[in-house]
TrEMBL record:
Function: Virulence factor required for growth in low Mg(2+) medium and for intramacrophage survival. May be involved in regulating membrane potential by activating Na(+)/K(+)-ATPase.
Protein name listed in UniProt: Protein MgtC
Provenance organism: Xanthobacter autotrophicus (strain ATCC BAA-1158 / Py2)
Cellular localization per UniProt: Cell inner membrane; Cell membrane
Residue stretches spanning the membrane: 12-30, 42-62, 68-88
InterPro entries found in the cross-reference section: MgtC-like_C, MgtC/SapB/SrpB/YhiD_fam, MgtC_SapB_SrpB_YhiD_N
Domain MgtC/SapB/SrpB/YhiD N-terminal: 19-140
Entry similarity comment: Belongs to the MgtC/SapB family.
Membrane disposition: Multi-pass membrane protein
Amino acid sequence: MSFLKTFELWSFLDSVLSLGAAFVLGTLIGAERQYRQRTAGLRTNVLVAVGAAAFVDLAARIAGNQEAMRVVANVVTGVGFLGAGVIMKEGLNVRGLNTAATLWCSAAVGCFTGADMLAEAMLLTFIIIAGNTLLRPVANFIDRIPLDERRSEVSYEVRVTVDTDAIPDLREKLIELLEQAKYPVSDVEEGPAADDTSLLVAKLVSTAVEPAELDAVTDRLAALPGVRHATWESTTEE
């Protein structure tokens, strides 16, 4: 039987240790994901870690370390496709990125154990769990910090609702008042509004403004004949 020819006790015990370590470490990573009810939880992370370990261990036993490195490269690519399956887009929001990254790291743990680098695998497992737990309060704290628009990439628009027949004069006046306030305009768009009115939208070149200055400009615009309403707004760029 081929089994009797290929079976080597010490090599088998080495595989048992590698796959067993991948199972334990994958369980530690997956337990945290399962507790937080993520799409890829306990079983998925265990299977990713054990699968990566099995492929690397098999390649190393059959063809040596050089072939094992090629398998590692293919594991990285394959898990990338697997991680894409847990990423979901809901409108402007994207969910599952952290879960996909955790799967990717679980595969790295499996590769370490498959290559018999157990100490490195345990270190990486600790870092993964720490990143998903200890850094969570830090991320929440940062999210609660108010956005400093003067230091962020923010686009600004001045929106003026005007009588349609007054568009030519008010368009020039809009640009003039903004330039006087040192806010150059990159473009002015026109569009229909309600009834016999139109909307002028001036996009500013500047990415940092003083709110009080723009308030003053819109107040002056609102006082002009033919202007129904004037305001400004900011949008954070992705």
